[in-house]
Structure formats: C-alpha cells, structure tokens
Design goal:
Layout: E1 14-20, E2 40-41, E3 45-46, H1 48-58, E4 62-67, H2 72-81, E5 92-97, H3 111-116, H4 119-125, E6 129-134, E7 137-139, H5 143-153, E8 157-165, E9 173-177, E10 183-188, E11 202-213, H6 214-225, H7 234-245, E12 248-252, E13 268-270, H8 274-283, E14 311-313, E15 315-316, E16 319-320, E17 322-324, E18 327-328, E19 333-335, E20 338-340, E21 343-344, E22 349-350, E23 355-361, E24 366-367, E25 372-378, E26 383-384, E27 389-390, H9 394-400, E28 402-403, E29 409-411, H10 413-419
Parallel strand pairs: 1-4, 1-6, 4-5, 8-12, 14-19, 17-20, 18-21, 19-22, 20-23, 21-23, 22-24, 23-25, 24-26, 25-27, 25-29
Antiparallel strand pairs: 2-3, 6-11, 7-13, 8-11, 9-10, 9-11, 15-16, 28-29
C-alpha cells in the first residue's frame, strides 16, 4: 500500500510582496544615489537579498517587489540577480515601480497603497496567502513556519515580531498580546511600551512582516483606499484597524529564525542608521558570527559579478599584504597593507603602506598609499587620496566627513572632492 501524500507546503500557495520603496534617510549620504534596500551588505550582497532569499528558501516562488525612491540600482540588481524565475514552472518575479495605475498622482502614498495599486496583478496569480515583507532588514527566516501558524490560528493577519527590551521599543510598532499571542493593541512608537505577559521587561515589536489570506487583504485594502482619513500604511492604519475589528495574532521570530546551530541569538537587524549598518557588517567578521552567511542550507541569493579571486601581494617588512578577521570579496587586491576586522566588497584596491581597521569598503573603492582608516564606511567608487587619515581625530573627521553618534565616519566621493576645493 502506498503511503498517503504529505500535505502541500503552504508556501507553494503564497505570494511574497516586498516593500522596497523607502529612502532610508537615516543612512545619510549612503542613500543619496540609491534606495536603502539596494545598499551593499556583507561584501557581496544587497540588503534586499535577505527578504528575497528567505522567500525563495521558504518555497515561495511568486514574488513582487514595489519600488519607488531612486530605484535604478535596485531594479538593475534584481534584473541581473533574480531573473531566473520561470513562468513555465509557475514562478514569477514582478518589479512594480510606482506608476499611474490608479490615479494621476502616481506615487505610492503608503505601504498599504503600494499593495493596493497592484491588486490586479496579485489577483491574476490567485495566491491563497500574501506574505508582505519589508525589504530593508537583515535576517534569515522560514516563512513557511509563519504561514502554518496563520493557517492554524484562523487569524485575519499574523504579524512577525521580535522581542526587544521594553524601553528600547519606543521606535517600533509595539504589540500588546494576551497569553495566546492574540494582539489586543497595536501602538506605533509608544513612549511607554507594554511588556509581554510572560516577560514584563520585554516588548514585542513589529518586524514589518505580515501574513494575510489574499481575499481578506484585498477587501481591507479596498476599504482603506476609500477612507480619506487614512495614510494608507500597514503599521499606522491597516493593522490597527484589524486588531480592533478582527483577529490579529503575533508570530514570534524565535520560532522561525533560521540558524545553523551555532548562533547564540535569533538574528534580526534594522540596518537603518550608519552606526547599525557599520556594526552589522563588522559583526560578520567574528569567528562565530551571529549571522552565518556560510550556511549552504539557507543561501543568500544575489547577483554575483564575474570577478577574479581576491589577491594579497608583497611580503616585505613594513610592506606585507594581509587581511585578518575580515571578509574580502572577489576582484579585490590588498597590496602591501594591513587590513583588520574589515569588510571589503568587490574590486577594492588597497595600495601599499596602509593600515585599515574596522572599515566597510563598498565596491570599487581605491585606497591609495599611506592611508590610515579606523571605523569607517566608504561609499562605492570612492578614491581615497594618499596619506588620508580617518578615525584618529574626531574633530577633524567631523569637519570633513559625516560622523555618527558612535564615532563611525561615512565617506562619499563628493566629500573627498570637497577636500581639494
């Protein structure tokens, strides 16, 4: 007798919709030329690759990405790196820029509106579930686990949540939940966040991840679109309305976080400030990083540029090419310099007699001779002049570059050009 077939994974009946239109102003000049999800991360990826890879690895094969602010580099990246989806395998990958689909205004007025304006495209695929994702966070998560909870609970919306110290949750949307994790209140950036029933000193903060049944979501989006008092945003309008009038359930990230078994925490980061972005990159250089990019069971898909291997040259006293506790991408050459605890992206050149520590160097950066760097983020394509010293004199750094509250220096090419003005 043949065994009974196993239940079909819910992810096969889901569509992921990634919201990737936000500028990310807290990253300062790093988002002057690109949207936040398009910012490089971890030597070879982009921030958006994490949400997209989680969807692929979870088994979701229909994906839409809503873009808006300075989207060219993001769209180019997705066309190059995510064009392998095939319609004949019931797969789809739709890039959905803001356009005059609903009104002549054109732009998406909020996160919910960014889905509403493309409802006809979504409904043409007839997915049973919608997984709505923020495209600007770094984490690994199995959305199938969240889908299963959503189905079993009978919720109208299931909201992905992380646990944070209660008084650190003032910058998040925070959920008040009962003993069964039913959301009884949704508070946007409260001054006094509510604690969890089982952990009163900890709050449940929204990750910007939502699961809906598609037909329910479509009805709610149309209702919200007709409300002239709404800002048409999931966190500010749609989810609070459902909490009040329907059935909303919290999904705890610790139950669906993907690890390789050696990490000590459920890793999720909003890399929305220069400090947070720098720290998340530098954390990857730990011997056992909290985010494991080497887990082949849950790969982070991305566009892989064809590059030669990284290269380290010269072995003379005072002129030795080395990199220790660092990530170094293809096409990079470290020539007679020391690199420590740093992240070097594709095609970086570090010329001789340099000392580079705590540096995040984006693609195409050229570090000329006798440069000393400490705790910096250098934007793509920047040419650092001979003898530049950054990270040793805070006042001098603040006059020339962008410095953060925690002492990280951001350097862009216009800042370098202004040095010679």
């Amino acid at each position: 007798m043949s065994p009974l077939p196993s239940p079909s994974p819910l992810a096969r009946h889901a569509m992921a919709y990634v919201l990737a239109g936000g500028r990310g102003t807290r990253l300062m000049e790093l988002t002057e030329r690109r949207v936040k999800p398009a910012v490089h991360f971890g030597a070879k990826s982009r921030i958006i690759d994490f949400a997209l890879s989680n969807a692929m690895n979870s088994g979701i094969k229909r994906i839409g990405v809503a873009t808006q602010y300075k989207a060219h580099s993001l769209i180019r990246h997705m066309q190059r790196g995510w064009g392998f989806m095939r319609a004949e395998r019931n797969e789809s990958f739709d890039i959905l820029p803001a356009s005059q689909r609903v009104s002549e205004a054109g732009w998406y007025s909020g996160t919910a509106d960014a889905v509403y304006q493309n409802l006809d495209i979504i409904e043409s695929y007839n997915p049973r579930y919608m997984v709505v994702l923020a495209g600007d966070h770094v984490y690994k998560m199995d959305y199938e686990v969240m889908l299963a909870q959503h189905e079993q609970s009978g919720a109208d919306v299931t909201v992905g949540c992380i646990e944070v110290p209660r008084m650190e949750a003032t910058g998040f949307g925070v959920m008040h939940v009962d003993a069964e994790d039913r959301i009884t209140a949704f508070l946007e950036k409260p001054k006094d966040p509510p604690g969890m029933p089982d952990k009163p000193d900890t709050a449940l903060a929204s990750m910007g991840i939502y699961v809906f049944n598609t037909d329910f979501l479509a009805r709610e989006l149309r209702r919200d679109a007709a409300d002239s008092h709404s800002s048409h945003d999931f966190g500010s309008d749609l989810v609070p309305y459902i909490v009040k009038h329907g059935h909303a359930v919290a999904h705890r990230f610790t139950t669906s976080c993907v690890t390789s078994g050696v990490e000590e925490e459920a890793y999720w980061r909003d890399v929305g400030t220069v400090d947070a972005y720098w720290q998340a990159n530098i954390d990857l250089t730990d011997v056992v990083p909290s985010l494991n990019l080497y887990d082949r069971d849950w790969p982070i898909w991305t566009y892989s540029e064809l590059t030669p291997p990284a290269k380290f040259v010269f072995d003379d006293d005072g002129r030795r090419g080395t990199a220790v506790d660092s990530l170094v991408a293809g096409g990079t050459i470290v020539s007679g310099s020391r690199v420590m605890r740093s992240v070097l992206s594709n095609n970086v050149r570090v010329h001789s007699f340099c000392d580079v520590q705590g540096a995040v160097l984006l693609p195409g950066v050229i570090v000329n001779r006798n440069v000393r760097l400490r705790n910096v983020v250098v934007d793509s394509g920047v040419h650092l002049p001979d003898g530049l010293v950054v990270g040793e004199d805070a006042e001098a750094d603040a006059r020339r570059f962008r410095t953060s509250a925690k002492g990280v220096t951001l350097i862009t090419q216009p800042m370098i050009a202004a040095l010679g003005a």
